[in-house]
């Protein structure tokens, strides 16, 4: 019987395939597309710190503001001027409470424990952790912790360090001298008030409707979030990256040159290096020139996308949300000859100043809804705006149901189902018709 021998051979095979290699430069170019001007300046500044042939050049002075018509929805076009006029917001909640604790005359041990309570204070002024947990962290027993909390709750404004809504309102009512037994009974039954069950609240409190209405009028004058008095200063608006204005021949969009950085390639700095650094100089100069081209490409792409958006949304620019047209990323990409992902990146983080206010560029992209004639002339944004208008104009005693809203909008030409109305209403944080009727009942009773 013969034996078989296994033989091994080395062999080579050749095949062709296509693949996309994402280099470091390509990754940076992709990131540049979605950077607003402020982030772009920081990025170029970082490149200039490590590359002697890159120089960041910012505008010497802000460019003149483009004159845009004032609109009710506008947050203010001269964002930098408004920021300069912002009033001093005063001390923060943390600074205020720290100063007040120092005036309470606490012992060193009590002051240290009060620091634990202060750390647990929420921005709206309530205590954000259970009292027994804070007592354990502070080395206090329950009685000592409650005594310290009582002293902290005397800090102005009244309502700070409350553990819940009822306690917050009770502290304020006591401070104003209106904490009657009936007022306390209402606070003990806040769930009934939240559901607008006024008759049930009367039964629970053992009072008549007129007496209850008097208490509710006082209750509405209290502040459920006293801490927000310190942190309510509006955050400064980020400057826009694109500015839309109306010219004699139509709408015009420009880059915001007042915040737009420029890359300057310092090729003359190469003479500072000797022949031994020739490789280093060539490599760094190549990177500097690529960066300048990438930033210019980013600016041109941003301008193309912005111009196409403006071309398609002239109705919105002139008349507001009611004239917002449906528009997709693919439509804009096909119109300017780029990939859909490029448009998505450009619009993800940029802001555009329009006569209707400064808005995210992404907000102009909205789905289409079918009209009665079968086309897609209605946009989701315009329909949401119309829903808000209908709700604002309804009779509070007989609010519109989702079916009624759907029929009203469908009669105007855009086919709309009841479930679509419900979805958009929830997106707008508009309660249901039943909840709106209850809210009107409570508001009307005071």
Could you give a short description of this structure?
The protein has 446 residues and is an alpha+beta fold. It is built from 20 helices and eight strands.
Biggest sheet statistics: 4 strands, mixed
Number of helices: 20
Count of all domains: 3
Helix content, binned percent: 40-55%
Care to count the β-strands?
A: 8
Task: Give the topology, please.
Layout: H1 24-33, H2 37-50, E1 54-57, H3 79-85, H4 93-102, H5 108-119, H6 131-138, H7 142-152, H8 165-176, H9 181-188, H10 190-194, H11 198-205, H12 209-219, E2 242-247, E3 250-255, E4 262-265, H13 278-312, H14 314-319, H15 329-336, H16 340-348, E5 351-354, E6 357-360, E7 368-369, E8 378-379, H17 380-392, H18 402-411, H19 418-427, H20 433-444
Parallel strand pairs: 2-5
Antiparallel strand pairs: 1-4, 2-3, 5-6, 7-8
Helix pairs in contact: 4-5, 5-6, 6-7, 8-9, 13-15, 15-16, 18-19
Describe this structure in words.
With 446 residues, the chain is of the alpha+beta class. The chain has 3 domains: 23-78 and 239-365, no CATH class; 93-229, no CATH class; 369-444, Orthogonal Bundle (Arc Repressor Mutant, subunit A). The protein is 49% helix and 7% strand. The chain has helices at residues 24-33, 37-50, 79-85, 93-102, 108-119, 131-138, 142-152, 165-176, 181-188, 190-194, 198-205, 209-219, 278-312, 314-319, 329-336, 340-348, 380-392, 402-411, 418-427, 433-444; strands at 54-57, 242-247, 250-255, 262-265, 351-354, 357-360, 368-369, 378-379. It has a 4-stranded mixed sheet. Strands 1-4 form a two-stranded antiparallel ribbon. Strands 7-8 form a two-stranded antiparallel sheet. The longest helix is centred in the middle third of the chain and has 35 residues, at 278-312.
